Amino acid sequence: MNLLDSRFLYPGDTYAQHFAKSGGYRYAVGIQGSVAQVDHDDPFSITVDAGEGAAQKTHYVSVTYTNGSFSASPLCLDINRGDVVLWAATAAGAPGFAVYGQSEQDRFDSAEIGMNGMYSHAFGLAGEFEWGDAHVPGLHGTIIVEAHPRCRTHGERQAYAQVLGKGTVVTIEDGQAYPDKVRITVGQTVFFAVKSGRGVSIVDKTLLRAFLNPQPLPPGRQ
pTM for the whole thing? Predict the structure, then answer.
């Protein structure tokens, strides 16, 4: 499983955005930092109609990586206001990606998640993971991942499958995480939902410390 870092989406991660405003969005998919702006020639678009009275839907976009470039399917979406769009990588081995989009009045960014945005991560290793935010000081939490139970019988396997089907939600509001500590089992997914704020990232503190305190290269490697 990949490391916990919402700025780089890998298989096992998803990014979702709830669209509360009507309008036309263009968006780009690429390596984080390379999609800081959107070109009008970018092929990916989302059109959000008013859709008064329509039931909320979730639309799924598959992100692929071929011959050194990313693509998204479907290329274009027509949705109603209040719908959710969810992006996920489908191919193992692809580099971590980010999604950045904008309309005349609004924008969204998986590397700096704003209000009504969500990031999810499936945990494949047992352990205690402390996470922080690369952009918002003070925002942090802990994920305790317990080893999966032994599944020696059909009933035990069914019970474990039911556990895997249960997601855990961490809500981020006013720079705080609720709850700030959760306990799950290997294979389960944690959903981080941003209710207020902008520029949120979810990053393993081990990565943050490595970034803030880089180790010097060995002699001859500078």
Answer: 0.86
> Omega before 214 cis (within 30°)?
no
For 108, the enclosing helix (H) or strand (E) is strand 107-109
Residue 75's Cβ-count burial label (10 Å; 0-12, 13-18, 19+) is exposed
For the record, the structure tokens of 32 come out as: 């984080």
- Four-point Cα dihedral 197, 200, 206, 208, nearest 10: -100
Identify the helix (H) or strand (E) that includes residue 185: strand 181-185
Q: What is the pLDDT of residue 139?
A: 94
pLDDT for 211:
62
Instruction: Decide: residue 25, CB within 10 A, 0-12 exposed, 13-18 middle, 19+ buried.
Output: buried
Adjacent-strand bridge partners of 141: 131
The answer to whether the CB of 144 falls within 8 A of the CB of 183 is yes
- Tell me the one-letter amino acid at 58: T
Determine the straight-line distance between the first and last CA of the chain, rounded to whole angstroms: 31
CA dist., res. 220 & res. 125, Å (int): 36
Point out the residues of the chain with pLDDT beneath 70.
1, 32-42, 53, 211-222
Per-domain boundaries in the chain: 1-111, 112-214
pLDDT of residue 113: 95
Which residues on neighbouring strands pair with residue 16, listed in sequence order?
Answer: 86, 118
